[in-house]
Amino acid sequence: MLDLVQQVQANCQIATAGQVGSYSLCGMLLRLRQLYKWEHGLRPWQESDPQEVLAWIAQQEEVWNDLAGTDLQELRWQGRRLDPFAITALNRLVAAEGLAYGAGFTHGMAPMCFLGELWAREERLGLTILTLGPELARDMDSAPALRQGEMIYLRTEALAFYLWDYLADPTKQNNIFFKIALAAWGVDPAEWLREPERYETWFQTLAASQGEALIRHELGEALEPTLRVALPEIIHRLPHSKVERWVRALKDALADLNEWGRLAHILAGRDLPALALLLAWRPGFYPYLLPELEPAFWDLQRTRDWEVMETARRTALQRLRRTAGEVEEVWAGLAAAETAVVQRRLEERFIRPLGL
C-alpha cells in the first residue's frame, strides 16, 4: 500500500505544478498554506513561522518547475496498470484497504487527485457518496467537496482547513451574517480565536453540519437539469475568463437553490446559523445572482416566518433556470463562432447588465 500512496503523491506533485497558475496570488498562497499544514501534520489553527513556510514554498517551486507540463502518470497496483482518472476501478481496489481515491480537473482544467481513509460510503439518489478522513496524498486543490461522475466526495480534513481559514479571516469578522451565525451558536468570536482548542467539540459539530450542506450542494449540482450542454463547453473554451467564473457561479447557485440542494436542506431544518453562513459566504457573482435571499433573510429575522425564505428560494430558482435556458440558447447560436466573439457576446448578454 505504501507504494500506491507514493505513486499518488507523485501525481499530486504533478497536479500541483499544473494548478499554481490557476489561482490569484492570494488564492494560491492560501492553498499552499493549507498544503503546508497538511504535510506537516498541523491542526487548522496551528501556525508555523512564516519564514519556514516561505522556505518550504521555495523548495516546492523548484519541484513544480521541473514538473510543469507533465501529465499524471498511470498507477500500478496489484499487477494492474491503471489510468489515474479511472476512479471507479481504482476505488474498487483501494476500498479493500479502507481507502478512497479521487481524481479529475479543477480550476482552469488543471488535474487534481487525492487518496485518503474511507470513513463512510452511502448511496443517495443514484449517486455514491464517499466521506474521507485523514488524507495520505493530496495536491494544492483544497475543495472540501466535489463530484466526479456519479461519485461525490466529502473531504473532512480539507473541510476543517477551509472552515478555519474562512471563520478566522480578519476581513470576515465584521460580516453581519457571520456575527449572526456565531451568536446563534453562542460562540464569542474573539474568545474562540484566542483559544480554539476549547471550542474543538463545537468546531467538529460545525464541520459535520457544513459537510452535509456541501453534500446537498453536490447532489443539487448533479441533479440540476439545466446547463448540461453549455456549461462544460464554456469551461473548456473559455478557461480563466470572467464568463467561465460567471457560468460556474450560475451552476453553483442553481445547485444551492434546487429541491435537492443546500438551501432546501437548510430551510427544512430551520437552521438559522447555517442560513446565515450561506449568506456570509457569497463569493464573486453570488450576490448578483441571488438578490432575493438577503431581503428575505431580514424578513425572517423580523417575522420568524420561514416561508418567506422558501418563497425567495423558489422565486430565485425559477429566475435562474430561465437564465440558464437563455445561456443554452445563446451558446447554441455561438458555438461555431471564434472564441473572442463568443466571450464578448456572452459578457454583453449576461455580465454587463449586472454592472460588472
Q: How would you sum up the major sheet?
A: 5 strands, mixed
What's the β-strand tally? Answer: 7
Tell me, briefly, the overall form.
Answer: globular
> Low-confidence segments, ≥5 residues, pLDDT <50?
none
User: Helix- and strand-based class?
Assistant: alpha+beta
Please state roughly what percent of the residues sit in beta strands, choosing from under 5%, 5-15%, 15-25%, 25-35%, 35-45% or over 45%: 5-15%
Instruction: Determine the N-to-C terminus distance.
Output: 51 Å
Structure overview:
It is built from 16 helices and 7 strands. It is α+β, with helices and mostly antiparallel strands. It has 2 domains: 2-156, no CATH class; 212-354, no CATH class. A 5-stranded mixed β-sheet has the order 3-4-5-7-6. A two-stranded antiparallel ribbon has the order 1-2. The chain is globular.
At a glance:
The protein has 356 residues and is of the alpha+beta class.
Lay out the secondary structure.
Blueprint: H1 2-19, H2 25-39, H3 50-67, E1 75-77, E2 80-82, H4 87-94, E3 99-105, E4 111-124, E5 127-138, E6 145-148, E7 151-155, H5 156-167, H6 176-185, H7 189-194, H8 200-223, H9 230-237, H10 242-257, H11 262-268, H12 272-280, H13 286-289, H14 293-303, H15 307-334, H16 339-351
Parallel strand pairs: 5-7
Antiparallel strand pairs: 1-2, 3-4, 4-5, 6-7
